[in-house]
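Hi, does anyone understand the following?
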Amino acid sequence: MDASLTTVFLGNLSYSITSESLHAVLAPLCPGLVEVDVIVRKNRNLGYGFCRFSSLAEAESAVLLLHGKELDGRPLNAEISKHHDDPAGSPLKSFCLFLCLI
């Protein structure tokens, strides 16, 4: 993954949306959009995804544009992602997982 890209978290997505359909909706609205990844597990969309932008400024602009915007009847939750690029996840998530296991 390109370290120069900035990732935006999108939550509250409709379960029918795909990476391709979300990209088709966002591309005309968000210059600098490089990639869209809707998270799917066991052939089911989990209702959130990540968009990568070519710069922090474009990502911040997308957050301002998309947060609260309605898509398929649902208001989007958009924010700059802090941990999606880290394969181990955040230290807090790791600690919470540890607590759940004991």
Notes: The chain is about 30% helix and 30% strand. Strands lie at 6-11, 33-41, 44-53, 70-71, 74-75, 77-80. The helical segments are 19-26, 56-66, 91-101.
